[in-house]
């Protein structure tokens, strides 16, 4: 499994933060705010994979582009960037040594901190 930075998602996250489409929540709230499998499926049905992939900062390039398992490191709820999701992604990227993703998420984290 080779997980790489999803540049489209990184650009999307930065754009949303610049537009202040954010939730400045606490780290521990991600388990409550993260979209459920049902919400993911509903979003996919309505928007397709081209939009779905914008919400995941990592991609496993060994998986098919139209497989949910390809997309890693979610950071929002399909509407807004959640600080708790960014913090979770940053921590997990560091833990699994996905340096390119960790650096990108740290950048988004810094942008969020400037808003608070």
Brief descriptors of the model:
single chain; 116 residues; alpha+beta; three-stranded antiparallel beta sheet; 5 strands; globular
Folded structure, characterized:
The N and C termini lie far apart (36 Å). The mean pLDDT is 97. The radius of gyration is 13 Å and the shape is globular. Strands 1-3-4 form a three-stranded antiparallel sheet. It has 116 residues and is an alpha+beta fold. The chain is 53% helix and 14% strand. It has helices at residues 7-18, 30-33, 37-52, 83-95, 99-115; strands at residues 3-5, 22-23, 56-60, 71-74, 81-82. It has one domain (3-115).
Q: Topology of this structure?
A:
Blueprint: E1 3-5, H1 7-18, E2 22-23, H2 30-33, H3 37-52, E3 56-60, E4 71-74, E5 81-82, H4 83-95, H5 99-115
Parallel strand pairs: 2-5
Antiparallel strand pairs: 1-3, 3-4
Helix pairs in contact: 1-5, 4-5
Succession of helices and strands? EHEHHEEEHH
Name the beta content range. Answer: 5-15%
Q: Globular, elongated, flat, extended or rod-shaped: what is the shape?
A: globular
The main sheet comes to: 3 strands, antiparallel
Q: Distance N terminus to C terminus?
A: 36 Å
Instruction: Tell me the total number of β-strands.
Output: 5
The strand order across the widest sheet is 1-3-4
Q: How helical, in percent, are the residues?
A: 40-55%
Number of domains: 1
Mean pLDDT: 97
Structural class call reads alpha+beta
Question: What radius of gyration results from the CA coordinates?
Answer: 13 Å
Q: Which residues sit in consecutive blocks of at least 5 with pLDDT less than 50? A: none
């Amino acid at each position: 499994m080779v997980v790489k930075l999803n540049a489209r998602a990184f650009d999307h996250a930065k754009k949303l933060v610049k537009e202040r489409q954010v939730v400045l929540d606490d780290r521990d709230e991600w388990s409550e705010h993260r979209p459920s499998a049902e919400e993911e499926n509903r979003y996919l049905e309505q928007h397709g994979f081209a939009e779905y992939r914008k919400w995941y900062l990592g991609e496993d390039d060994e998986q098919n582009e139209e497989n949910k398992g390809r997309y890693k490191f979610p950071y929002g709820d399909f509407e807004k960037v959640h600080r708790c999701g960014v913090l979770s992604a940053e921590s997990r990227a560091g833990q699994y040594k996905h340096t390119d993703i960790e650096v990108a998420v740290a950048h988004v984290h810094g942008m969020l901190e400037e808003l608070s």
